[in-house]
Amino acid sequence: MNKQTIIGNQFEGESVDIVDVIVYFRQRMTKLLLTFFAFFFPFLIYLLVAPTVYRAEVYFLAPQLKDIQPLNIVNTVNAVRQFDEVSVDDVYQKFLTNLDSRNLRWEFFEQQNLLEHFKTQGDLGKYQVFLEEFNEFLVVTKPESTETESAKIHFDMTESDTAAESLQAFVDFVMNRTVIDLADGVQSELDATVAFLENEAATKLKLAKLRREDYQQALHEALVVARRVGIRSSDLVSTNKTSQSMTISIDNNGVPLYTRGVEVLEAELEVLKNRENDEAFVSGLRNVQEQLDKLKTIRIERNSIHPARLDQRSVVLDKPASPDVKRILMIGFVLSLFFTFILHLAWYFLRGIDFESK
Question: 284: exposed, middle or buried (C-beta count within 10 Å: 0-12, 13-18, 19+)?
Fold first, then answer.
């Protein structure tokens, strides 16, 4: 009889006939099957008792330029300074970052009162439940190229309807919060510019008043001098060319104010005294006021801002996320077959050793 050595007996140097092993296994077929099912049974039990977890998914694409146009509306009317341009990528990255924000997830978890939907063991606190049952199963998948590929967020939960509703509500919540953050940022810059221009206008008016008062003081002093030297009018100065002490060219630039004469000085003082508003005489004030009027008319249309485009709203996949029945059955079958073979092969060799020892 041809023999093939499988395992040598290290004490007596004997070999094992493979045919004998096969015959041995055939004779113990019932025990083999029982052993196999003993190993396979726990996998079946797991499939029966394991909760079915459903997965809801949402896909999005980057927004288009028209979706963020309201964020750049200030630059279309503001000539004082240019605001930083808000790009599509800036808005989309802000949205994806907010999806991963633990702070926003916790705020949503509390607002929606999701604690009652999770069955927990032990005395886990509310925040611990949030971490282990909600945050861990809310997963964002970001593409390498945000321009051409979709981003995805999925949520696993034992209640399929609640999973889909909660996921869509969370996405809407994050979109709204992103719009608020972006719009508030632009509004903050807008308010700061308005405050700057209002302060500039107020400063111009204040300085104009001070300059007018200074000029009035100068006119008062010039009036005193004009009275003392007897200059009633500026014509007197221009006609008295024979007087060496009074040879003065009538030129407003660099010419003493008293040369205007008492009549002109008194008239100008009277006008300045009765002036009620300096705005018409302030250089650059109207330009500032024009910019203020333009900026104050700006309204950021938040409803027209979309930080992402929904490529697919929240839907629950037909196939549960877990347990994976096919995979578990396949793993259980292979492992049970392997351990059954190893166990009965060990019994075969142990049987031989017991037989020789008797």
Answer: exposed
Residue range 143-163, pLDDT digits in tens: 877 666 789 999 998 888 888
Tens of pLDDT, residue by residue over 240-270, are 443 333 333 334 556 788 888 888 888 888 8
Structural element, H or E, at residue 326:
helix 325-357
Cα angle 280, 286, 289; round to 5? 125
Quote the CA–CA distance of 226 and 262 in Å, as a whole number: 6
pTM across the whole model: 0.69
Please confirm whether the linkage preceding 323 is cis (ω < 30° from 0).
yes
Q: State whether the Cα torsion 260-266-268-273 is positive or negative.
A: positive
Tokens of 99: 């999806």
What is the pairing mode between strands 151-157 and 54-61? Answer: antiparallel
Using only C-alpha atoms, the chain has a radius of gyration, in whole angstroms, of 46
- CB count within 10 Å of CB 116 equals 7
Q: Is the dihedral of CA 177, 179, 182, 184 positive or negative?
A: negative
| 303 class by beta-carbon count within 10 Å (0-12 exposed, 13-18 middle, 19+ buried) | exposed
Phi-psi region of 70 (alpha: psi -120 to 50; beta: other; left: phi over 0): alpha
β-partners of residue 55 are 156
